[in-house]
């Protein structure tokens, strides 16, 4: 097997024969162009593409103001002709997490692809275990790969990803909108517009970048303007220390704020547990969860009463369900989180979330709505405050190749890692 870039111009007859009855041929072998025996469902190539997309407005978080969004699109091609799409996306380069778009691309190209090429794409357990054995962390990159394998397998079997994950218990998910213009009047106008459009009635306010009293006044003014017409929550993105957080949580709770997300550092788990005991509004863990094991430790320590589920921070749509199971067992509420992914990552999350028994705090799967452009053939459907999840095979999405070619950062490159 060659690990180097190889342009394959024609397929062998045995590959074409395998494609006629794709799933039945899963366990049959054929020889690739280098003469090496491979499964019909072998992973033939992995492509990673960085795309930079404009946002509708600057999006202000405690640690970073987004002026645009960068996605890493992953395309896994299999020998039986099926193609899986995935996405690995973060916020603000390295401002939010340990992986950047550039590190995700480099690590998949250099370290993931050699482990996966030639492996059976239809055995997702085995493929992900192979990665897990050799690659520490890198949950964002793992999530995009796991998504692409699920998408390919769903297409192969004619099933939506949700059904591969055990089956959906709903078809649509309520979606929150984040108000993060940094300006109180603008945020109120934006919320009113979303209510009028029947797009969102849950609002998350990004605070923590400013002086705390100013931030609290901003939140309280928005809650007063919206009243009972909306649920208002805050995300502090770790910006406060424990003493500030305790005072602020009390003020927020007594002013009708429903949920307080990650008020203090992910490293201060004992502080999170103390806040969780004393805050009148529930505390949600977001940055505190960087892997499934974090979720277990948080649950054991009583550090949060709600978990934000994110496929990127757990290693994929299957991995995030392990965190959900820990939360369910511990009596912790669930919220379907986002890393502001585009359509592919958003839909991968949605397929996982619609399989959950309970999602008490709904979701924030609005990433595509923050973008003025996406690289999908068809946009996602947001209607009557909900995101609707297709019942077509795989993720139910396809790429618009022209848009992809236009927005890809590396326009001239056609490098594909191929066996
Ligand atoms: C985060 O910290 O939750 C989710 C929504 C949003 O506006 O930012 C993200 C990240
Ligand atoms: Mg958050």
What does this structure look like?
38% of the residues lie in helices and 20% in strands. It has 419 residues and is α/β, with parallel strands linked by helices. It has two domains: 165 residues, Enolase-like, N-terminal domain (Enolase-like, domain 1), CATH 3.30.390.10; 225 residues, Alpha-Beta Barrel (TIM Barrel), CATH 3.20.20. The chain has a seven-stranded parallel β-sheet with strand order 7-8-9-10-11-12-13. A four-stranded antiparallel β-sheet has the order 5-4-3-16, sandwiched between helices. Helix 6 runs parallel beside helix 7, helix 8 runs parallel beside helix 9 and helix 12 runs parallel beside helix 13. The protein starts with 12 loop residues before the first helix and ends with a strand. The relative contact order is 0.15. The N terminus is likely disordered. Bound molecules: [(2S)-5-oxo-2,5-dihydrofuran-2-yl]acetic acid (MUC) and magnesium ion. The site of [(2S)-5-oxo-2,5-dihydrofuran-2-yl]acetic acid has 12 residues, from loops.
Q: Based on DSSP secondary structure assignment, what is the total number of beta strands?
A: 16
In the CATH hierarchy, the third-tier topology of the largest domain is known as: TIM Barrel
Strand order in the largest sheet: 7-8-9-10-11-12-13
SS strand fraction: 15-25%
Distance N to C terminus: 6 Å
Under the CATH scheme, which architecture of the largest domain would be assigned?
Alpha-Beta Barrel
* Content-based structural category: alpha/beta
Number of domains: 2
What is the CATH domain class of the largest domain? Alpha Beta
Rg (CA only): 22 Å
Instruction: Indicate the low-confidence ranges by residue numbers.
Output: 1-20
């Amino acid at each position: 097997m060659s690990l180097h870039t190889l342009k394959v111009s024609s397929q062998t007859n045995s590959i074409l024969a395998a494609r006629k009855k794709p799933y039945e041929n899963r366990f049959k072998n054929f020889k690739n162009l280098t003469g090496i025996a491979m499964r019909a469902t072998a992973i033939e190539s992995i492509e990673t593409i960085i795309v930079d997309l404009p946002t509708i407005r600057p999006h202000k978080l405690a640690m970073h103001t987004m002026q645009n969004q960068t996605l890493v699109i992953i395309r896994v091609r299999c020998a039986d002709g099926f193609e899986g799409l995935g996405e690995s996306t973060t916020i603000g380069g390295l401002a939010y997490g340990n992986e950047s778009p550039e590190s995700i691309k480099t690590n998949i190209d250099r370290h993931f692809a050699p482990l996966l090429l030639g492996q059976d794409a239809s055995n997702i357990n085995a493929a992900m275990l192979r990665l897990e054995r050799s690659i520490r962390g890198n949950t964002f990159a793992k999530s995009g790969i796991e998504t692409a394998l699920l998408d390919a397998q769903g297409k192969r079997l004619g099933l939506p990803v949700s059904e591969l994950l055990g089956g959906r218990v709903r078809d649509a998910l309520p979606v929150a909108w984040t108000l993060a213009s940094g300006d109180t009047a603008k945020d109120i106008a934006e919320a009113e517009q979303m209510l009028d459009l029947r797009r969102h009635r849950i609002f998350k306010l990004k605070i923590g970048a400013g002086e705390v009293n100013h931030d609290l006044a901003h939140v309280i003014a928005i809650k007063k303007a919206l009243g009972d017409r909306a649920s208002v929550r805050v995300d502090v993105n770790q910006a406060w220390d424990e003493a500030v957080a305790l005072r602020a949580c009390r003020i927020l709770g007594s002013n009708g704020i429903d949920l307080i997300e990650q008020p203090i550092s992910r490293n201060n788990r004992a502080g999170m547990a103390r806040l969780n005991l004393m805050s009148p509004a529930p505390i949600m863990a977001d940055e505190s969860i960087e892997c499934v094991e974090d979720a277990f430790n948080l649950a054991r320590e009583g550090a949060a009463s709600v978990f934000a589920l994110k496929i990127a921070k757990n290693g994929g749509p299957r991995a995030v369900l392990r965190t959900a199971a820990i939360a369910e067992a511990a009596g912790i509420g669930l919220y379907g989180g986002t890393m502001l992914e585009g359509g592919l990552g958003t839909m991968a999350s949605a397929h996982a979330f619609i399989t959950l028994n309970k999602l008490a705090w709904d979701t924030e799967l609005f990433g595509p709505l923050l973008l003025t452009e996406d690289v999908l053939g068809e946009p996602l459907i947001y209607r009557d405050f909900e995101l609707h999840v297709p019942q077509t095979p795989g993720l139910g999405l396809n790429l618009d190749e022209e848009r992809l070619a236009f927005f890809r950062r590396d326009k001239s490159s056609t490098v594909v890692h191929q066996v």
